[in-house]
Amino acid sequence: MRQLTALDVQFLNAESRTTTGHVGGLSILDPSTAPGGTLTVDDIRELIGQRLHLAKPLRWRLLQVPLGLDHPYWIDDNEFDLEFHVREIALPAPGDEKQLAEQIARLTARPLDRGRPLWEAYVIHGLQGGNVAVYTKVHHAAIDGVSGAELLGALMDLSAEPRTIEPPERWLATKPPSQLELLAGGLKRIALHPIKTAMQLPKLLPHVDEVPGAARLPGVDLLARAGSALSKVTKQGPGRHEADRPKLPVPETPINGPISPHRRFAYGSMPLADVKALKKAFGVTVNDVVMTLCATAMRRWLLDHDALPLDPLVTLVPLSVRTPEQAKSAGNQISMMLAPLPTNIDDPAERLAEVTKAMAAAKQRYQPLPASWLVDFSAVLPSALGGLSARAAMRYLAATSPVVNLVVSNVPGAQFPLYQAGARLLGHYPVSAITDASGGLNITVMSYNGNLDFGLVACRELMPDLWNLIDYLHEAMEELTKLAAAQNQEA
């Protein structure tokens, strides 16, 4: 039995009629390398069944505490049904990319059943070229980007011949604690909560204005400065970095506002070697190039809609804060930072330079934050009030100016071929989540075997033409490549 952290619970609390809390990925597989040249739902079920002990979150279900007095627990599901979780569907002819993406959009819009382990997998046939897709979604309360990649790795092999896996210890059904035991534990945590919160305040106050949306509230900046002075006096933290704390006004755009329950999904790849060549040519990082590609693509899209703001967009960038000891643990070990995305700059060279400068400043600004600051802030409210406050905050944010415009995330992946049930993995495209607070667009990038695989999720009503953004990302790549070539000629 494992209790969810306050941050894990926030991903449960954020769910509503229009918002789902799961994340996942779309794997495109070549069945010609699998035994018999085929890949069936039974093959995937057999593989997962053999490796459940390596992917424990797939067997966990939620155990709620009475009256919501404490955070819920993950417990083994004694009635686990693998056939329920792994399903099979097929696309109609011709089975092209946009048909597949539309099916993924429908599947990702459906919430998971909280009475069962919070994941589903779909084996999808009928793709052009004879490939097979596997779409897997898992609740964000159980995994983040890095632990999700670890879970994916447990189901993959380095060759078409599956590796030998040590057989699991015999699984024995466990009896969950009684409702009375859970209630007693919850009451104890409520009693201790004010003390724990008071002990955390000197560490948290200096960074209160880093909570997305908090900085625009009256007096928050003054409170953060007072907290910084207090933390230095009490020696409970280094305070905060004051050298460069730019205000980031969040402009109004067509992708911000209350989201609908409906989704769009689009995906595509580009060679990692080409991105690294640009990194070398301009003396920047791979992430700087990725952020510049996103800025250029978004600029083009906003111009299409006659909606380009004078200020840069503000993007939320998730960060992993996992230690080596936490590498294989489930749950969320993440932080975040806000950074400007200079869609307002016309010149591509200046746009790249501004991205590089802004990302360096953002990293410097967020460096003093404790690794656990997001978890600690999530824990300030008692569990019994967490769900109410999260949903109230979402409603408030949807009714006022946006907190951020979009999310851009970059997740490292394996740089060698992987196989699932003998079928070669051709690409793995992230399928993430959107909320009223984080904007109607999420761009997540995962590197795999020499490619950058882009997965884009958007609200269908706010961004119906999402596939245009894939085209614009490729055009942005061509633009930077020409710029690098011209720079080399001048040198």
UniProtKB/TrEMBL annotation:
<dbReference type="GO" id="GO:0004144">
    <property type="term" value="F:diacylglycerol O-acyltransferase activity"/>
</dbReference>
<dbReference type="InterPro" id="IPR009721">
    <property type="entry name" value="O-acyltransferase_WSD1_C"/>
</dbReference>
<dbReference type="InterPro" id="IPR023213">
    <property type="entry name" value="CAT-like_dom_sf"/>
</dbReference>
<dbReference type="GO" id="GO:0001666">
    <property type="term" value="P:response to hypoxia"/>
</dbReference>
<dbReference type="Pfam" id="PF06974">
    <property type="entry name" value="WS_DGAT_C"/>
</dbReference>
<dbReference type="InterPro" id="IPR045034">
    <property type="entry name" value="O-acyltransferase_WSD1-like"/>
</dbReference>
<dbReference type="GO" id="GO:0005886">
    <property type="term" value="C:plasma membrane"/>
</dbReference>
<dbReference type="InterPro" id="IPR004255">
    <property type="entry name" value="O-acyltransferase_WSD1_N"/>
</dbReference>
<dbReference type="Pfam" id="PF03007">
    <property type="entry name" value="WS_DGAT_cat"/>
</dbReference>
<dbReference type="GO" id="GO:0051701">
    <property type="term" value="P:biological process involved in interaction with host"/>
</dbReference>
<dbReference type="GO" id="GO:0071731">
    <property type="term" value="P:response to nitric oxide"/>
</dbReference>
<dbReference type="GO" id="GO:0006071">
    <property type="term" value="P:glycerol metabolic process"/>
</dbReference>
<dbReference type="GO" id="GO:0019432">
    <property type="term" value="P:triglyceride biosynthetic process"/>
</dbReference>
<comment type="pathway">
    <text>Glycerolipid metabolism; triacylglycerol biosynthesis.</text>
</comment>
<keyword id="KW-0319">Glycerol metabolism</keyword>
<comment type="similarity">
    <text>Belongs to the long-chain O-acyltransferase family.</text>
</comment>
<protein>
    <recommendedName>
        <fullName>Diacylglycerol O-acyltransferase</fullName>
        <ecNumber>2.3.1.20</ecNumber>
    </recommendedName>
</protein>
<feature type="domain" description="O-acyltransferase WSD1-like N-terminal">
    <location>
        <begin position="4"/>
        <end position="290"/>
    </location>
</feature>
<keyword id="KW-0443">Lipid metabolism</keyword>
<keyword id="KW-0808">Transferase</keyword>
<keyword id="KW-0012">Acyltransferase</keyword>
<feature type="domain" description="O-acyltransferase WSD1 C-terminal">
    <location>
        <begin position="331"/>
        <end position="480"/>
    </location>
</feature>
<comment type="pathway">
    <text>Lipid metabolism.</text>
</comment>
<feature type="region of interest" description="Disordered">
    <location>
        <begin position="232"/>
        <end position="256"/>
    </location>
</feature>
<keyword id="KW-0444">Lipid biosynthesis</keyword>
<dbReference type="InterPro" id="IPR014292">
    <property type="entry name" value="Acyl_transf_WS/DGAT"/>
</dbReference>
